[in-house]
Amino acid sequence: MGRSFGRGARFILAAAVLALAASAAFAQAAPPIPSINGTISSISGNTLTLTLSDNSVKQVTLQSGTIILERDVAGVSDLKAGDAMGVAARRDGAALIATNINIFSKEMWDAVRKGQWLMSDGQTMTNALVTDYAEGMSGHTLTMKYKEGTASITVPDGVPVHRLVTVKQDALAAGMMVTVRYSGSSSGRTVTATSVFFDHPTQG
User: Are strands 95-103 and 161-167 parallel, antiparallel or unpaired?
Assistant: First the structure.
């Protein structure tokens, strides 16, 4: 069975994969991400039946373009120049201090919003390519390049780092806890998924 996402990790991951619909000024907070979290109770063809925390049920329709992602634990040693990443960071004066890092798969990088913006929790999200990763006496520093500019982000020891790996639909199974991003309204019993995330299964 997959491990569940913490609330903070779910928010940061959802913010990192916000699709680019229109350009937004950095000072503008990104809008809430339409997503639901729950446990897969059954799978029938391209439809997941998801049980939510309040015991309500949602039918999730998977499309040909739905991205299925497994989130694997990584570390700062896995960070390298050339990777596409989503980095959530807090501000400390003029400095940005990373609080969560996701390394994107190619498919995910092709789909995400790129650039830097303010999230609704006050943190800064940077989705960009890493041009340099330096390790020195003062710690680790990521240099990230996006269309509007360059960001230098300090990476403290112990910051959570994950690699998001694109997998096939058959990787999903009953009993998994997942986060589903969707398009349209969630007012009905059915939503159409744009992406589905789950944590790498615990071994043993």
Answer: parallel
